[in-house]
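Minutes, project check-in
Item: structure for the 56-residue chain
Input as provided by the requester:
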Amino acid sequence: MITATRTYDKKAIKEIMSMNGIRETIAEDGQNPDDFKPDLDTDCWLLIHDDDVVIG
């Protein structure tokens, strides 16, 4: 089952940031994806799960 959860968990965010293509997906328009750095102290992330596996 696909579910979504909100998180501030730095470990989970780092896991997401290591996924292929994620930086291109979430970088703002005109921003170099390689320069995109999440603000782990203040950003809230929505994690997408397929059962217990984070997929995005």
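Outcome recorded: The helical segments are 10-17, 22-26.
No further action items on this chain.
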